[in-house]
Amino acid sequence: MTPAETVQIISLPDTNQEASTVFSLEGQLALITGGGTGLGFAIARSMVSAGARVVITGRREQPLRDAVAELGDKGHYMVNDVAERASLKELVSSIEATHGPIDILVNNAGINMKKPAVDVSDEDFDRIVHTNLNSVFSLTRICASRMLERQRGSIIMISSMAAYYGLDRVVAYAASKSAVEGMVKVLASEFSGKGVRVNAIAPGFIETPMTQTAMGGDPSRFARVISRTPMQKFGRPQDIGWAAVFLASEASRYVTGVSLPIDGGNSIGF
């Protein structure tokens, strides 16, 4: 090996950070779309517990008010529909003018529709993809442009088991989430060298009122889910919340471009 080909390995000092520090989000601001209920609220609650201030958004004001009342003085809200892409630049500008730079973006808001593929109209398909993919990219681009200037930030997408394997009757939703998975890889490759990490969480079957209603009326589907989930149980909303804290924190400083299944093994079950 010639001198020009010599590879030098630089040994960096071990900072030996405490767990309470490395997982802390103290001093950071998170924007969480669809944060008033369900998994979005669980993520907001976990991030507040980790020290972050959060701004949650959604279309309906009352659930946002109720959520902020529970989150305490570190919780704030703004009424916004992510599907109205023309409003997103003003949303981000207003949040940063009022609360400071956004350090963490969680693209949680999304919609679904269960219908046989042959019954899905072009309008149905476009509506799902517009909200779950097009709007996600628009908001991500706006936030990322500011994060890249500051050379720091964490962007977290919410994916789905529908992007991992074939789930019947959710063709538009699966297409949108599969596209989000691809977007994570591309954005991570473009942004990560400039201090902005991009990752996804893929929730499995989580105990929420919506899931309980759906499974309660479809016992055969419930049995199928449990049979292919090695942990033999549903997850809890806070399981998603703490995963988001990890991906936003210094603990995952060398993690980018991944999709993290929080699913009790469902994605690898048989």
TrEMBL record:
<keyword id="KW-0560">Oxidoreductase</keyword>
<comment type="similarity">
    <text>Belongs to the short-chain dehydrogenases/reductases (SDR) family.</text>
</comment>
<protein>
    <submittedName>
        <fullName>SDR family oxidoreductase</fullName>
    </submittedName>
</protein>
<dbReference type="Pfam" id="PF13561">
    <property type="entry name" value="adh_short_C2"/>
</dbReference>
<dbReference type="InterPro" id="IPR057326">
    <property type="entry name" value="KR_dom"/>
</dbReference>
<feature type="domain" description="Ketoreductase">
    <location>
        <begin position="28"/>
        <end position="204"/>
    </location>
</feature>
<dbReference type="InterPro" id="IPR036291">
    <property type="entry name" value="NAD(P)-bd_dom_sf"/>
</dbReference>
<dbReference type="InterPro" id="IPR002347">
    <property type="entry name" value="SDR_fam"/>
</dbReference>
<dbReference type="InterPro" id="IPR020904">
    <property type="entry name" value="Sc_DH/Rdtase_CS"/>
</dbReference>
